[in-house]
Each structure stands twice: as structure tokens, then as C-alpha cells.
Amino acid sequence: MRRRGFVYALAVTAAMPALAGLAVAAPPTAEVMAPVNALDEGLTAIMRLGRAAPFQQRFDSIAPVIERTFNLSAILQTSVGPRWTALPDEQRMELLRLFRRFTVASYVANFNSYSGERFETTGEPRTVGNDVVVQTRIVPPSGNATRLDYVLRQGDGGNWRIVDVLLDGTISRVAVQRSDFRSLLGHGDAAPLIASLQRKIADLSGGALAA
Q1: CA atoms of 172 and 47, how far apart (whole Å)
Q2: Quick one: three-class SS letters along the chain?
């Protein structure tokens, strides 16, 4: 399944050690489940549209959902690390703009067909420190399901938003992204990372999106 390969490509190594041995039972709540349910519904919608719909149309369809359900600013700052605060304001703004487009384009490019797959929530949400982990899986009409866990964190306004995605419950998208981003920021200049995100957006969209 290409969608499983997508998650592996974003998170090939580096399980999150912070999740080990810290989980305790947490009651499921509508507030915690709402972002995951909204994302699953949005992804199903663009999968049903498929490649017959222009990339831009699918991008515009899922972008508000991803921006509402993910804390993209927090994810980017975690991926960049301590150098974030040292970057000029204009570079931080440009990185966030491109990171949003890159994240949305990644989902559009990889959730691009539908053959009866469904999303299921399994087990009980569990607390890990200040976060909550919701376990889901993508179930195809035949073959093995793909497990995806979502790590959610409550913001200052009380809303829960996704801050990481774990393949098979352990492989962290943010962990690998952090390694990639920080290698490009090795000399403290954001220009290589900006250029990399621009290329990735163009590649994912087949040239349909301008950076």
C-alpha cells in the first residue's frame, strides 16, 4: 500500500522513546477524538475524488482540515529545534508557510485513490505525559491493516491538536523529519531548508503547486 510507504518514507527510523512505559488509561472524550475523526473524514473525501480531480482541488479540500487538526507551528518548531528562535522573523514565516504547503501536498499526493478503505479507531486513548495517543488503523478491503497512532496535545485554548503520527505505534514522523530538517540547518541558515521544501512541494504536486 502506497499510503503505508508514505508514512515509512516520512518516518523510517527513530521510535519515540518518550512514549515507552509511560502510558496510562485515559477516558475517551469527544474533544480528543474530534481532530482524528475530522482528519479521517477529510482523507476519505480526497481519496474518493482521486486523481480524476485536479491536484489543486484536492489540496484546497484537505488543507483547512489539516491546518485545523494539526498543530503545524509546534511540529515545525520541534523539527527545527533550538535554531528556530535564532532565525530571522521573515525566514520563520516563510518556513511555516512552506511547511504547511508541504504537509498538505504530502497527504494529497499519497491519499490519491479509493478502493473501499476505511479508518477505524481501536482501543482506548491513553495519556503519555501531557499528551494523549489515539490508536487508529487503515483497513483495506483485503490484506493487512496499517496502524497509525496520533499524538495529540492540548493547546492554550483547550483544543486538542495532532503533534505527531506514529506508524505501527512507534515510528515517529516528527523524529525523522527533525533529523532531515536539522541537517539542512547545519550552518544556521534556513535557505537550504526553504529550497528543499520548495522542491518537495513541486515534486509532490507534479508541478501543479507553486512554492
Answers
A1: 24
A2: CHHHHHHHHHCCCCECHHHCCCCEECCCCHHHHHHHHHHHHHHHHHHHHHHHCCHHHHHHHHHHHHHHHECHHHHHHHHHHHHHHHCCHHHHHHHHHHHHHHHHHHHHHHCCCCCCCEEEECCCCEEECCEEEEEEEEECCCCCCEEEEEEEEECCCCCEEEEEEEECCCEEHHHHHHHHHHHHCCCCCCHHHHHHHHHHHHHHHCCCCCC
What are the angstrom distances between the C-alpha of 123 and each of 88, 149, 203?
44, 11, 37
Residue 27 pLDDT? 43
Candidates 79, 54, 64, 34; CA nearest to 205 is: 54
Under-50 pLDDT residues of the chain = 1, 7-25, 27-28
| 53-87 pLDDT tens trace | 999 999 999 999 999 999 999 999 999 999 999 99
CATH of span 2-205? 3.10.450.710
Asked if 68 and 35 count as a contact pair (C-beta separation under 8 A), the reply is: yes
Residue given cell 533529523 in the structure block: 179
Q: Which of 131, 67, 108 is nearest to 200 (CA)?
A: 108
Measured distance CA(91)–CA(42) in Å, rounded: 30
